Amino acid sequence: MLVGKFTLVKINNINKEIGARIKLARINSNLSQDSIAEDLGISVSAYSNMERGAVDITIKRIVQVSEILKLNWIYFLGIPANNNELSDKNMQSLNELKISSRLQKNKTPIDFEKEINFLKSEVSKLKKKINN
What we know:
The protein is mostly helical. The protein has helices spanning 2-28, 33-40, 44-52, 59-69, 88-103, 109-131.
């Protein structure tokens, strides 16, 4: 039971850290919560909950926010772009994925699901590296 509570606290802290980075980036971009919520297709209340870390933030949503704010999605995970843990090969792969996804307009939902699963696995690998 203790492990379950610890895991929940850790996840809540992660959500708050990601939300704080999203808020900071939004403020630095001189954008309102209203405008980002509209771009995301969600209510201002739902967006506010995301900034406060009151809800789980999916990788898909992080990528959407990063595109609106014109930042690398890795920033929101608290990983500096120049982190030595990220090899040039990993960064090149991530950049190629980003470029290819913008070039391919006729993707199916299955294609997007595959990309999301890939991104989730990359984030998981990065978290393991950071925690070690």
